[in-house]
Amino acid sequence: xxxxxxxxxxxxxxxxxxxxxxxxxxxxxxxxxxxxxxxxxxxxxxxxxxxxxxxxxxxxxxxxxxxxxxxxxxxxxxxxxxxxxxxxxxxxxxxxxxxxxxxxxxxxxxxxxxxxxxxxxxxxxxxxxxxxxxxxxxxxxxxxxxxxxxxxxxxxxxxxxxxxxxxx
Length: 168
Fold this sequence. Notes:
EC 1.-.-.-; mainly beta; globular; Pnp Oxidase, Chain A; 168 residues; 12 strands
């Protein structure tokens, strides 16, 4: 699977506690488009994921599709929950209007409500109805392939380390 290029996203959710709302964010590359009518997307998480537990509790999340210049954000939220929690305070984001989960600045995004969940092997697939969207048409996409981050740009115009394409 390391030869299959995937988009890089940060999923966010939260849990309301007696001490207030506790946000969480995690880097994911399992975003899939399921349906256009109604608009449905999917994500997959390890069954024992604390992020998944919070998502199932609230039934709300945001997927921020990262632009190529957000490699550092992707790396910071790819680790265990203990390291991610300290990074939340430094995340440039605002609560989504429809879900309350964090929407990352500069990213394309989908606000989602839980529609279905399926336990499959050692993962749980969650299907979300898309409630709201936003995007940045000009930002090149960030993808993950062969163990590294790369920018997707027009291959007719760029070439170089970390980018795909050849100058024609």
